[in-house]
Amino acid sequence: MKRNVISGTRMYVAVAGLALLAGCTEPSLSEPNVQASTGKGAQAPDAADAMPAGPIEVPPVIVHSAADTQPFPFEAPAKVDTPPSTCRIDGLVLPANAKVYAAGAYGGKEADFQIDQSGHQATTIQVAVHEPNAPVVLLLGAYEPTVWSIGWTRGTQIAAVLVTGYHRQRVTGLPAGMPLLISSREDRGPCSFAYVGGEGWSKLNPLAREVFGRAVDVAYAARDGRAVIGTLPPGAQLVTDITAKPVADFQLKDAPLAGQAGIDAAVRSGVLRPATVADLRAWEAGGRRNGGAADIPRIEGVNAEREQGMPFHSYTVLKAFAIPAGLYGAHAATFFVAPGVPAPTGEPGHSQVRFLENGQCVGATCGMR
Fold this sequence. Notes:
By secondary structure, the protein is α/β, with parallel strands linked by helices. The protein is built from 6 helices and 16 strands.
């Protein structure tokens, strides 16, 4: 009996507590026809108080006449070619007897222009294809920025083309509608890059299998900017598409000439002049003033330019100058910057930039030659 009384008492306390909570709980705003309390004595604003007195004024619409306006110069952004997102040629189904041929090199024949912003001058490779017995699939690859020109013998059927490289690649000569995939690391393409030669050999078959579903049958190395796929018969006549663009049409707009052609143009325009031993001596003197150059006495009785370290391909910068692309290896130059002339812009490659005013040298090969 005592146990039942205790249980009943507990039940009473629990029910009373729930009732108390229910009385103290604010109604939910999500319930219909319920407004939040505004405090003791607060009342909801009357509808008449919420509306302004009198008519509502709407600001007039301003209409500009032709006399009140002027042209607004606006240059629409250039359309950017979006690279494909997957390393494949959509819808490509190869015949069972198709041949996969690779061709290319580290780079082709040097051109005097650029096709990308890599600082490397463009190269060109001509590809001649002769395969009358089976459809042909081409895998073309180069490390350097390259424009590929493609021609073929009559009776040769090209089924698809994959062009790959580290720097930008461009193709001319193919008919419209030809299955084509261009992928370079420079343009963030979807495929790994490969080329014929060096470390590129080992990448050819994996790339061919990924795109074409089969390995390369034969790889042909390009020489002096030319690659021959197959064996051209004597007197073979090659053709290309009638809409083929000249390789120069792929030149990067507003980019200066590349390589030695760019240097020669700067000499003709008075931006550069051939450097002299006096320029070398002035640079060395500037270095001595700043404690940076070797202390070498004047040398007599020998070829002064050779014995005193006159650099090959050396020029003096007289005005603002953009270093041409492609000055690597044997194409490198030395630029002496005259006092008061701004430092050259552009990618020096393997070239040196020497400042006469303070004897400083800027470039990857400073101190090496």
